[in-house]
Write a structure and sequence with these properties.
There is one protein chain. The protein has 13 helices and eleven strands. The longest helix has 16 residues.
């Protein structure tokens, strides 16, 4: 079943907080939901489907549906890390097409900043992960696992730290116009490569921020979308994929985006060249570079040259990306950045991004995310969205 035209995003809301020591995770979920409903012009009574992931407290949809007093006939708690919320857009569209619900709510929230989370702390390995006994003794750290990918990409293709730095530079050019962004100062390539080394070859400014916050989306049936006053953002295509250790045949230079992106473009009936704006998960600069290649915006190994010289800056480059500043400068709530990628894509398609970064005639956008670790196992989700 094709998702093309089966559902529309009618509401989107990004929680403005970046540090919330006085709020619970459940409260951030609920406040985000209220914001998305207000944006759509709907009420809580209209929601009959709910989607959340591992950031939701308790048993996910059970706890949150009770907390928000929702009356539901369909729930989904798919968790593929930071890519979950992009996958949820596709799952909501599929559920709507199957008649399982009419209006779906998707929420994300977290407090990693208030709770002292850090990408330089040892990454916990769940004991039920099959490889845990072999991975845990080495104390995997998030930054180190991504640094392995960056180092390998440099070895294979000659990618440089200066090229990676251009991704942060582009994000900072956009973040300066976002009043809520954690880092609003425009930086240079020299600023990035001269910032402290965190895990060779990744510098401090190659890494995303850690923030509290949240966000929510409302996905609805076409008939409902057409009855509302908001611009209609059509779900045109979607794809999901996972990549693991492949029995030891490991290649760190590519991600599951090569499969999820291809599926999304095929279902949408478009090509990467048709995309006007791209929201791309940016936990680290290397994350963006690898995904740009795997999504087909340039050939494998040429990502460094593609992103250099400001090619990701709105109004300057060929592929405007993350015009809110992204995870590198704006926020990274719950250590899961997929939700905000969809929200900013919706803003661009509606023409509601900041005037300084709004892409002219933006009618086709992509939102893409990864969840887990590029250097070990991860999920990947891609959606192609269109302004109708």
């Amino acid at each position: 079943m094709s998702l093309n035209g089966q559902a529309y995003i009618v509401g989107a809301y990004e929680h403005p907080t970046r540090k919330a020591p006085d709020k619970s995770v459940a409260q951030l979920h609920a406040e985000s939901a209220i914001g998305a409903l207000a944006d759509a012009g709907l009420t809580k009574a209209d929601i009959d489907g709910y989607f959340c992931a591992g950031d939701a407290p308790g048993l996910g949809p059970l706890a949150m549906a009770d907390y928000m007093n929702l009356r539901l006939r369909h729930v989904d708690s798919t968790d593929i890390g930071g890519s979950s919320y992009i996958a949820h857009v596709a799952h909501a569209a599929a559920a709507i097409a199957a008649g399982k619900c009419n209006v779906a709510l998707i929420t994300l929230a977290g407090r990693p900043r208030s709770e002292g989370s850090s990408g330089t702390a040892q990454r916990p390995v769940a004991p039920n992960v099959p490889d845990a006994a072999w991975e845990a003794p080495f104390g995997p750290v998030t930054t180190n696992v991504y640094a392995m990918c960056a180092m390998r990409h440099m070895h294979e293709f000659g990618t440089t730290s200066e090229q990676l730095a251009w991704i942060k530079v582009a994000a900072s050019h956009h973040a300066q116009w976002n009043e809520h962004a954690m880092l609003r100062d425009v930086v240079t390539v020299a600023d990035v490569v001269n910032s402290p080394m965190i895990s060779d070859p990744l510098h401090r400014l190659d890494c995303c921020v850690v923030s509290d916050g949240g966000g929510a989306l409302i996905v609805a049936r076409p008939e409902i979308a057409k009855s509302l006053s908001r611009p209609r953002i059509r779900v045109r295509g979607a794809g999901e994929a996972v990549k693991g250790q492949a029995g030891g045949d490991v290649d760190l230079t590519y991600s599951a985006a090569r499969w999820s992106g291809a599926a999304a473009f095929a279902e949408a009936g478009v090509t990467p060249a048709d995309i006007k704006y791209a929201s791309i998960y940016d936990s680290f600069t290397i994350t963006v570079l690898i995904q740009i290649e795997d999504l087909g915006f340039c050939e494998k190994g040429r990502g460094g040259r593609f992103v250099a010289d400001g090619n990701l800056i709105s109004g300057v480059g060929r592929l405007p990306f993350n015009t809110d500043g992204g995870g590198l400068c704006n926020n990274h709530p719950a250590n899961r950045g997929g939700m905000t990628k969809v929200i900013e894509a919706v803003r661009q398609l509606r023409g509601e991004a900041h005037p300084k970064v709004q892409v002219p005639n933006c009618d086709l956008a992509i939102a893409h995310g990864t969840g887990g670790l590029l250097g070990s196992r991860h999920g990947s989700a891609t959606v192609v969205l269109e302004r109708e």
